[in-house]
Specification:
Elements: E1 9-11, E2 28-32, H1 36-48, E3 52-56, H2 59-68, E4 73-77, H3 85-95, E5 100-105, H4 109-117, E6 122-126, H5 130-145, H6 149-154, E7 159-161, E8 164-167, E9 172-175, E10 178-180, H7 184-194, E11 201-202, H8 203-209, H9 219-232, E12 242-245, E13 249-252
Parallel strand pairs: 2-3, 2-4, 4-5, 5-6
Antiparallel strand pairs: 1-3, 7-8, 8-9, 9-10, 11-13, 12-13
Length: about 250
């Protein structure tokens, strides 16, 4: 497939190698990566796995495209020319609650942490295998779209704890009546813990139950907890709801 670098390139191919003209059920993924070799390999692999993929090499064009047509998932490289991936993530987060997986260079821990601080749901370190990225993409989408659906359908009202209110059906969180802007993963983390009050979870537990990983860097959990506290706690330094159990992990207090 020949694609120019200045405009989005669309991929949608099934396992037999034939282009899929119309597959409404396919999850839509936007890959923002300026390295065409990397972008093409990842796009082809994801398309063969059934994803409807669009590739964009320019950060500014990516923001415009994603905000106009929010996909189900964004795979975002941090090292982009011009507007870098961190700024793209920041602007996306201001406009649309789209799950984001960031691609980072080996050893760039500060970039990973900053990306998570900006609201990215996960990260994959380069060099990576397309299979690993596909597994992460499926996990993020599964957690974003389905883990609370069955529970939400049986709920007759929102979850409440003090001035905190969580509606599983609408995926809205209100603090003292005001709507809180949570990312998809922050919402899942809060809802998971809120439905299990006073139960203590290790970071590894949360990484497995909320992110769907049996391995990985548990700093992802730490960053999300910090961000979540900043959005729902009156004093994040002295949290009322998401409390640290020293040497173990976290628990939710009502």
């Amino acid at each position: 497939m020949a694609c120019g670098t200045s405009s989005p390139c669309h991929w949608n191919t099934n396992r037999s190698g034939h282009t899929v003209v119309n597959e409404a059920a396919a999850a839509r993924v936007v890959i923002v990566e300026d390295d065409k070799a990397v972008s093409d390999v990842v796009a082809k692999y994801l398309a063969l796995e059934g994803f409807d993929v669009t590739t964009i090499a320019d950060g500014s064009k990516a923001v415009e495209h994603i905000c106009a047509q929010p996909p189900d998932l964004v795979v975002l490289d941090i090292m982009l020319p011009g507007m870098d991936g961190l700024e793209v993530c920041r602007r996306i987060r201001d406009k649309a609650p789209v799950p984001v997986i960031m691609l980072t260079a080996l050893g760039e821990e500060s970039d990973r942490v900053m990306g998570l601080d900006l609201g990215a749901d996960d990260y994959v370190t380069k060099p990576f295998s397309p299979r690993e990225l596909t597994a992460r993409a499926k996990s993020v989408l599964r957690r974003a779209q389905g883990p609370l659906a069955a529970i939400a359908s049986d709920m007759t009202g929102p979850l409440k704890a003090g001035d905190l209110e969580v509606d599983l059906r609408s995926r809205e969180v209100r603090v003292d009546g005001a709507l809180a802007a949570l990312t998809a993963k922050e919402f899942d983390l809060l809802a998971f813990m809120m439905m299990r009050p006073r139960q203590v979870f290790t970071r590894e537990d949360l990484l497995e139950k909320v992110w769907g990983y049996t391995f990985g860097d548990d700093s992802t959990v730490t960053v999300h907890v910090r961000r979540l506290r900043g959005k729902i706690e009156p004093d994040p330094a002295r949290p009322v709801h998401i409390q640290t159990v020293w040497g173990v992990g976290y628990r939710f207090e009502t």
